[in-house]
Amino acid sequence: AQSVTQPDIHITVSEGASLELRCNYSYGATPYLFWYVQSPGQGLQLLLKYFSGDTLVQGIKGFEAEFKRSQSSFNLRKPSVHWSDAAEYFCAVAPMDSSYKLIFGSGTRLLVRP
Amino acid sequence: DAGVTQSPTHLIKTRGQQVTLRCSPKSGHDTVSWYQQALGQGPQFIFQYYEEEERQRGNFPDRFSGHQFPNYSSELNVNALLLGDSALYLCASVKREPFPEQYFGPGTRLTVT
């Protein structure tokens, strides 16, 4: 069955430190890949996406993600975290043969220390 | 350009009742997907509407039904509400070309008592 794993439930980083959030997926072929961010009580905002081509993709708010086919991973990174980045982050995949059905991970809550 | 809108923002219903949630997609988007997000979990796909028909469905019972109107707006209906239906219901407006991207509304928080 298709699945998305975000192994870290919570991550705490200091403001200005770098960040990496992990995401692994289980699927036969390379799906479309996405990262979303959700602030408390809000909807989800698309941070970045990967469809094909260059495996390092840039998104909004200074985020980037790298697709590694050999590891079935799509980790999210940011070189310097700001206090406003504190939120819940969701990795999602969309199989190419069912591309309107997003399958989400369980999320990683990011806390930022001042 | 308006984003994805959903109404109402919050809703409280009693077990056994029925509820209707509404969504208007972004201008130029003709496809809508609905998701249920229980507290502390990632969203789960309910179904997707395109050309006024349900095109894909997730693992949800028939109590969950929907509709899409000619102006591409959509409704999600849930019958015979259960306590477990309490969740944030998210509507996503789908940009289909050249690759599928989904843009979410703020959600409707449903509480079943």
Give descriptors for this structure:
heterodimer; A: 114 residues; mainly beta; four-stranded antiparallel sheet; 0% helix; globular; B: 113 residues; seven-stranded mixed sheet
Number of strands of chain B: 11
Order of helix and strand elements from N to C terminus of chain B: EEEEEEEEEEE
Portion in beta strands of chain B: over 45%
Following the backbone from N to C, one meets helices and strands of chain A in this order, namely EEEEEEEEEEEE
Give the amount of beta strand of chain A, in percent: over 45%
- The portion of residues assigned to helices of chain B is under 10%
Mean pLDDT of chain A: 93
Span between termini of chain A: 41 Å
- The helix/strand class of chain B is mainly beta
Characterize the quaternary organization of these chains: heterodimer
H/I helix tally of chain A:
0
Question: Mind describing the biggest β-sheet of chain B?
Answer: 7 strands, mixed
Q: Layout of helices and strands, plus pairs?
A:
The complex is a heterodimer of chains A (114) and B (113).
Chain A: E1 3-5, E2 10-14, E3 19-21, E4 24-26, E5 32-38, E6 44-50, E7 56-58, E8 64-68, E9 73-78, E10 87-94, E11 103-104, E12 108-113
Parallel strand pairs in A: 2-12
Antiparallel strand pairs in A: 1-4, 3-9, 5-6, 5-10, 7-8, 8-9, 10-11, 10-12
Chain B: E1 5-7, E2 10-13, E3 19-24, E4 31-37, E5 44-50, E6 53-57, E7 64-68, E8 74-78, E9 87-95, E10 101-104, E11 108-112
Parallel strand pairs in B: 2-11
Antiparallel strand pairs in B: 1-3, 3-8, 4-5, 4-9, 5-6, 7-8, 9-10, 9-11
Summarize the structure.
The complex is a heterodimer of chains A (114) and B (113). With 114 residues, chain A is mainly beta.
Could you describe the 3D structure shown?
- The complex is a heterodimer of chains A (114) and B (113).
- Chain A has strands at residues 3-5, 10-14, 19-21, 24-26, 32-38, 44-50, 56-58, 64-68, 73-78, 87-94, 103-104, 108-113.
- By secondary structure, chain A is mainly beta.
- In chain A, the strands form three sheets. In chain A, strands 2, 5, 6, 10, 11 and 12 form a six-stranded mixed beta sheet that branches. In chain A, strands 3-9-8-7 form a four-stranded antiparallel beta sheet, with no helix packed on it. Chain A has a two-stranded antiparallel sheet with strand order 1-4.
- The mean pLDDT of chain A is 93.
- By secondary structure, chain B is an all-beta fold.
- Chain B has strands at residues 5-7, 10-13, 19-24, 31-37, 44-50, 53-57, 64-68, 74-78, 87-95, 101-104, 108-112.
- In chain B, strands 2, 4, 5, 6, 9, 10 and 11 form a seven-stranded mixed beta sheet that branches. Chain B has a four-stranded antiparallel beta sheet with strand order 1-3-8-7, with no helix packed on it.
- In chain B, strand 7 (64-68) and strand 8 (74-78) form a beta hairpin.
- Chain B is globular.
- The chains are: A mainly beta (114), B mainly beta (113).
- The A-B interface holds A 4, 32, 34, 36, 41-46, 49, 51, 90, 92, 94, 98-107 and B 4, 6, 31, 33, 35, 41-45, 48, 50, 55-56, 58, 90, 92, 94, 96, 99-107, 109.
